[in-house]
Amino acid sequence: MVDGLPRLMSAPGTVYFDSVDAVRARDVLNRFYHPVSLDASDGEKTRVEVELIQLGPLTVGHFTFAGCATLVAPEMDAYHVTLPTAGEIRSRHAGQEVTVTPATALVFRPGDPIHLRHEANSAELEVRIERGALEAELAALLGHPIDGPIDLPTSFDLGDGPAHSWSRLIRLLHEELEHESSLIYQPLIAEQLCSSVLSGLLLSVPHRYHDELTLPVTAGPPRAIRRAVEAINDEPERNFTVGELAVIAGMSVRSLQEGFRRHVGNAPMTYLQQVRLSRARDALRRGDPARITVATVAHRWGFAHLGRFASAYRQRFGESPSATLKATP
C-alpha cells in the first residue's frame, strides 16, 4: 500500500482507500456512511486503513485503527451492522454500554445514535444498508408491504448458525476487494450479492417478520410463473432481478423461486441465462463472421464479461462461440 494516497478502483461504485489520517477517515465515513465525528486520542499519529466497496444500497468497509478513536453519530439514517475483526470495541447503545469482540455484531437501526470507542489495533467490518432497500427486500420476500423500521436486535452472536454464515459472506466481499478480476465487479453478480447480503441478514437475526419469513413457501401457480417466463423471453437482454420478476408474476420472491423450481426446473436467474445463451447461439449461427464479432453478440444479449460468456456457452453447447460463428455457411 502507498501510505496516505487514496486509490479509486476502476469498477463503478467501488472505492478502495489506503492508510489515511483521522481527518481523511472521517471524510470517508461522512461520504459513504453517515455524518460522524471522529475523535482520535493520538491526534495526527492515528492512522486508519480503509477498504471499501459500494454496491448500490449496500456499503461494506473494513477499518483498521492503529490508535484509539471514538466515532459518534447523533442519528442513523440507515441500517448499520458493525462486525469486529480484531481487538475490542466499546459501544454505548440502547441505554447500555457493551464491549464487543469478533464473536458479536452490533446493529444500529434508523434513528439510533452511534457511540463507538475503538481500542488501538482494533479492526471491524462496517455494513451500511439503505433503509428503503432492506425494507423493500423484506417486502419482496414476503410478498406484502411491511411496517418499518425493522426491529433488528441491537446485537447478535456470530459464533455459529445463519448469523455466522452471513458474516462469512461479508468477509468474502472484503477479501475479494483486492482482486481486480473478481466477479464482484460484474454488475449482474454485484446485484445478486447485494440481494444475498440483505436477505441473508433478514434470515439470520430475529425480528417480528422472521417467523413468517422462514415458514414453508407455497409455489406460485403455473399461470403466474408463465408471466415471468414470458417477460424473460420477451426481453432476455434486460437486467432483470428476482424481485422485478416477482412483481411481474404478482407473488413473493420465495414463491417465484419455488414456482420456477417446480414448473420450469430451474431458478429464475438460471433460466434467464439459458435464454440469453440460446439467443446468442442463434445470432452467431445466422451471423456473418465478416460483419459481427463474438463480443458484439455477447454484449447484445446481456453478457458483460466475454470470458465467462465463452465458458458458459461451451458448457451449454459443447463448442466455443467463435467455433459457432466460423461454422456459419
TrEMBL record:
Gene3D superfamilies reported in the protein's UniProt record: Homeodomain-like (1.10.10.60)
Segments forming domain HTH araC/xylS-type: 226-327
One Pfam family it belongs to: AraC_binding_2
GO molecular function: DNA-binding transcription factor activity; sequence-specific DNA binding
Keyword terms of this UniProt record: Activator, DNA-binding, Transcription, Transcription regulation
Name by which UniProt lists this protein: AraC family transcriptional regulator
Native species: Actinoplanes aureus
Lineage of the organism: Bacteria, Bacillati, Actinomycetota, Actinomycetes, Micromonosporales
